[in-house]
Amino acid sequence: MAELYPFIKKQDKEVYEALQGEEKRQKEGIELIPSENYVSKAVREANASNLTNKYSEGYPGKRYYGGQQYTDIVENIARERAKQLFDCKFANVQPHAGAPANVAMYFALLEPGDTVLGMDLSHGGHLTHGHPVTYLTKIFKFVRYKMKNVDTGEMDYDEMRAVAKKEKPKIILAGYSAYPRELDYAKFVDIAKEVGAITVMDAAHIAGLIAGKACKNPFDCGFDIITTTTHKTLRGPRGGMILTKDNEDIAKKIDKSVFPGFQGGPIMNTIAAKAVAFGEDLKPSFKKYAAQILKNAKAMEEVFHNNDIRMITGGTSNHLILADVFGSLGIPGQEAEDVLDEVGITLNKNSIADDTRKPMDPSGIRFGTPAVTTRGFKEKECRRVAELMIEAMKNKGDHKKKKAIHNEIKTLCKKFPIPDSFV
After folding, report:
1. Residue of 24, 29, 42 whose CA lies nearest to 389
2. In the annotation, is 63 catalytic?
3. Which end of the chain is least crowded, N or C, by CB within 10 Å?
4. Measured between alpha carbons, how far is 32 from 300 in angstroms, rounded to an integer?
């Protein structure tokens, strides 16, 4: 087996040791952060390719530097595969990440002072959907909608319609970072038509589930735009993307906003990695993967339900679960994260709907199944992981018990190594 990072080992001992430590952590631990995944060796090769040397400001056929015959090929492959995955006519694959994709989308469609209607952060929304700590709120007006019932996940579409009629938003934004159910996209579209708004879905978390046909495609319900990251459930490199269903005018505005509006040269090695990942996502095996993510999440839901641990929305219809561990087990989210990290299970603390605790020490934890599904876990393994999570949290002060759990986690990870290829 070829040695990892031989040139870094020779040149930079400190960085090499950190990379080796991370390699060991990933191999021996279970990754449950819903926004993380493992990529194939092919994606990693593309991300480390010679395209990192190339500046490619502009778009294929319209670059500002010479020597673009191969960069154009790679970006066009990525765009065409993205359009095929999501059944749309326009794709911009240059955003460096999900947040810049959302920012570029806003500035493409809005003027300062315009209004956006999006999901409240405390009910599952994202910082870029109008949280007061972001600079976006200094430029645009954000109004919010919430769940009608946090125990079922039912959205308050009546409130959404009332707010839309009052505030007249130019964009109605769907999507989330901690909402375990599917949205009724048709209702978003109906409300948007009533007030003349553009519909945007931030699909960063579930893009792979949409591409894999495990969740509904917002474009099929009449949405105008999808923004997304390209990692998470899409199992690609860390990056962003903006998709437009069929409106060429909107697509041109988005292209201009991404470049030269907000970014200079695109990260071409990452775009090559996106192209490779999208090629993997088009294989029949990816649909099976997306379907298994949902099955595995339901298996973990079952265990938490049987142990009387409250889950926001009552469970899950996608890849993630948001559990109120403080209310159910008396352990704050930060402590739960630390305890589980000690036994080799990585997830994140997370606020629950209308949380009374502070965001950095909230009541909940958020976890999901994309990464463990990549390793080959099925329902049986996911049920066992959920059992071990609960056992660790209930026995947080029992070092002997936690060591036994950690050893079982290591054995499970050895049985299901991180794969090099998915096709």
Report:
1. 29
2. no
3. N
4. 11
Instruction: Considering the candidates 238, 245, 349, 396, report the single residue annotated as catalytic.
Output: 238
Options 31, 120, 202, 324, the catalytic residue? 202
Long-range contacts of 184-191 (CB under 8 A, 24+ apart): 184/155, 184/157, 185/216, 185/218, 185/220, 185/221, 185/222, 185/223, 186/221, 186/222, 187/155, 187/157, 187/160, 188/160, 188/221, 188/223, 189/221, 189/222, 189/223, 191/157, 191/160, 191/161, 191/164
Regions of the chain where pLDDT drops below 70: 1
330 contacts 309 by C-beta, under 8 angstroms? no
Q: What H or E segment, with its residue span, contains residue 59? A: strand 58-59
- Whether 232 is catalytic is yes
Nearest to 311 by CA among 296, 299, 301: 301
pLDDT tens readout for residues 145-204: 999 999 999 999 999 999 999 999 999 999 988 899 999 999 999 999 999 999 999 999
Domains recognised in the chain with CATH numbers: 46-281 (3.40.640.10), 286-415 (3.90.1150.10)
**Is 408 a residue of the active site?**
no
The catalytic position among 229, 313, 369, 374 is 229
CB neighbours of 254 closer than 8 A, spacing ≥ 6? 90, 92, 104, 105, 108, 225, 242, 244
Are the C-beta atoms of residues 124 and 154 closer than 8 Å to each other? no
CB 386 within 8 A of CB 297: no
Active site residue 227: no
Residue 54 has which token pair? 């190339």
Of residues 54, 144, 170, 232, which has the active-site annotation? 232
Kindly name the residue from 5, 16, 55, 70 that is annotated as catalytic: 55
**Catalytic residue selected from 5, 16, 36, 57:** 57
Residue 137 is among the residues annotated as catalytic for this protein: no
Angle at 373 between CA 370 and CA 378, to 5 degrees: 140
Has 202 been annotated as catalytic? yes
Q: Tell me the pLDDT tens digit for each residue of 261-275.
A: 999 999 999 999 999
pLDDT in tens, 249-306: 999 999 999 999 999 999 999 999 999 999 999 999 999 999 999 999 999 999 999 9
Q: d(Cα 56, Cα 334) in Å, to the nearest integer?
A: 43
